[in-house]
Amino acid sequence: MIPFAAMRKLFAVLKREYFQAVRKKMFIFMTLFFPLLMTGVMALPMMMMANSLTGKKVAVIDGTGQLRDAFIKDPKAPKKSRNELPIDLNIEYLGARDRDATETAKPYLTRLNTREADKLDAILVVPSGAFDTDNARMILYSRAATDFITQQALGSAANRSIYRHRLLARGIDPDSLDKLTRNVPVDAVQLSRSGEQKKGGELNFLMGFIMAALVIIPSLVYGLEIMRGIIQEKTDRVVEVLISSMSPRQLL
Predict the structure, then answer these.
(1) 94 and 172 in a common domain
(2) pTM of the model
(3) Which domain holds residue 121?
(4) 3-state DSSP helix/strand/coil percent for the chain, to nearest 5?
(5) What is the DSSP letter of 145?
(6) Which of 144, 176, 208 marks a domain boundary?
(7) Residue 72 sits in the same domain as residue 137
(8) Banded pLDDT at 185 (limits 50, 70, 90)
(9) What does the pLDDT look like over 119-142, one tens digit per residue?
């Protein structure tokens, strides 16, 4: 069993190390602002990317000639059947039915590298066999190699319209099929011990996640500070031992 005097010395050492680490400005800064810093590091690039996508000019060369409604908003169309892109793009649509879409797109490729007012940010080429050809593939020409958000938005809009046209060609009403295949949502209900029902548990999960982060992050920062202090202490002790073992002549 550890003597009481030894325990007092141990607690004194721990208290000194604790206050030496906690009172540092870096520890306070990292504890208070590190979560905000990490949130900003993750959110800022996403906000900048979203702003850079707004107003992009995209040319759509449609080899089928039937996908105009997928890219051009029709204010007269019913809201439920209206196709809207998830991002705000300036679409220049060209129907190239009965023509080679790839050849039709060649004059537009020069507008990707120009600095004139009619410059393009991307060109989507839809092949003429998109409805009935198994190996048909759309092509997106872009000035930015990492423009995957625009690629995803244009591809999703085109595929939704192609899907509807394929159903109509086989005599199937797309709206009726959507009603038959629609998902049934699941509502979460929290039941307390008293039998009280409370809908939704997302906020509780979020609060638990935030509290866990507030516990884990200071612990990690404190552990790093303690480890740094121990390493510094060991280094100083080694230097002290080396200096104490040398004669004045050797030191000089």
Answers:
(1) yes
(2) 0.59
(3) 51-176
(4) 55, 10, 35
(5) T
(6) 176
(7) yes
(8) confident
(9) 888 899 999 888 888 888 999 998
